[in-house]
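Our preliminary data section would be incomplete without showing what the modeling component actually yields. Below, a chain of 553 amino acids is followed by its predicted structure, encoded as C-alpha cells that our downstream tools consume directly.
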Amino acid sequence: SLILECNNLGVWEEGFSLFCQGLGANNVLRRLDLRNNQISHQGAGELALALKQNSSLEELDLRWNNVGLLGGRALLNCLHSNKTLKRLELAGNNVPSDILKAVEHAMNHNQDRQAILREAQNRTDILSKEVLSLKDEKAKQFLNLMDTIDKQREEIAKSDRVATARVRQLQEALDEQHSIMNSLKAKLQMTEAALALSEQKVRDLGELLNAAKQDQTSMAERHLMELQQQKQESVDREGKLRRDLSAASEKILLLRNQVDELEKKCKAQQDQLFQVKQDLTNTTAELKLRAVQAEERLEVEKKRFKKSLEDMESLRVREVGHMTQHIETSERAMQDRIQRLEGIRIDLEKELSQVKSAALAERGQAEEELMKVRNQARLEEQQRLEHLKEKLRLMTELRDEAQNCCLKQNQMVAEAQAKATQVTLLTDGLQRRIKELQQDLNSKEEEKVTEVNKVKVELQEQIGQLQAERTAQDGLREKIAALERQLKALSSNHREALLDKEGEISMLLEKLRMKEAEISRMKEEEAQRASFLQNAIMAYVQGSPLGTHSPRK
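Predicted structure:
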C-alpha cells in the first residue's frame, strides 16, 4: 500500500511520467492513493499506459484531481486490458456520469473475474483430489478384477478336473461292460452249442437266448452312465448267471454222454429210447421254467436301469444348464467391468489434458513474471544511476562555486583560510557521503542480484516440479496403457479358455457318439452271430443221427 495524497505530483509532468513507468513495471503494489495531486488528463493518460502493463494493482484512488473527460476515457480504455484492478475512485474530477458508470461496470467485471478465477483454482484443487481418489479406486478395482479372474480360473480348473474324472469313470464303466459282454458272449455260445444237440424244441430256447442277448446289450448301453455303486450289483448278477450257465453246461454234458451211449446202444436198447425222451422232456421243461424266471429278472433289471438312466440324464441336463448360466453371467460381468474401465480411462485422459493445459498456462505466467521482474530491475537500476549522476553534477557545481569564491577572496587570507578549511571539511564529508552512497549502491545491487538469483532458483524449482509432474503424468499414462494391455490379454485368455472348453465339450460329445455307434455296431454283429449260430444249430440238429431216427419211430 502506498499513500501519496496532497503532494502535487501532477505538476511536474516528466517526473509523473517516470512514476507511471515505475508503476507499470511494479508487480507487488496492491493499493495506491493519489488524491489531490493536481493530475491532469495527460497524467491520467500516463497512468492508463501504466495500468495496461501492471498486473498486481487492485485499488487506485484519484479523487479531487483534474482528470476530466479525456483522462476518464483513457482510464476506461486501459481497463479493457487490465484485469486485476477492482476499485477505481474518480470523484471530483469532472468526469461524465456515463464514463463513471462504464468504469464501475468494468470494476464489477474484474471483481467477477477474480471470483471466477478463485473458484476455478478451488475447482482445480478439488479435481486434483478427485483424480487421486479415482486413481486409488481404479487400483482397487483392478485388484478386485484380478482376484475375480483368479477365482474364475480356479473354478474352471475344478470343473476340468471334475469333467476328466467323470470321463475316466465312464471309460472304466465301458471297459467293464465290454469285458462282461465278451464273457457273456462266450458263455452263450457254449450254451447254444450244448443245447443244439438236444432236440428241435431247443429252437424256442435259442429264441429266448437271443432275446436275452438283446436285453443284455441294452443293459450294457445303459450301464455307460452308471456310477460305481452299481458295479457291485452287476458283479453279483454275473456270478448268478455263471452259476446257472455252469449248471446248464453240466446238464448238457450229461445229455451228450447219454446221446453217445444211446447212439452206440441204439440197436440193443431201443426200448430205453422212450425213457431218454421222457428225460429230455423233463429237462426241457426245467429249462423253460428257468428261461421264464430269467426273463422276469431281466424285466425288473430293465426297469431299474431305465430309472437310473433317467435320473442321470436329468442331473446331467441340470449341471449343463447351471454351467452355461454361470459362464454367461461371468462373461456379462467381465464385459461390464471392461466398459467401466474404458470410461474411467477416457475420464483420466481428459483430466490429464486439462492438467497439461493448466501446467502450460502456469509456465507461461511464470515466464511473464520473470520478464517483468527483469524489466523492473533494469528500470530501477537506470533510475538510480540517473539520480547519482544528478547528485554528482550538483556536487561538481558546488565545487566550482567554492573554487570561484576562493579566487575572489584571496585578499582576505585569514578568512579565506578559515573558509577554505571549512570547505575542505565539507568536501571531505561529501566525499565520505559519496563513498557511503556508493557502498549503499553496491549493497543494494548485491541484494538485487541475490533477489534475482532467488527468483531464478524458485523458477527453476517450479520448472523442475512441473517437469516432475510431467514425468509422473507420463508414468501414469504408461501404467494406464499397461493396464489396458493386461485387460486385453486377460480378456483374450479368458475367451481362448472358453473356446478350448467348448472344443473339449464338443470332442467329448463326439466321443460319446462314436461309442454309441460302436455299441450299435456291436449289437448288430451280435445279432448276426446269433442268427448264424441259430442256423448252424438248426442244420446240425437236422443232420444229427438223433434227428434222423426220431421221425422213423
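The chain has nine helices and four strands. The beta strands are 2-3, 31-33, 59-61, 87-89. Preliminary results of this kind motivate Aim 1 of the renewal.
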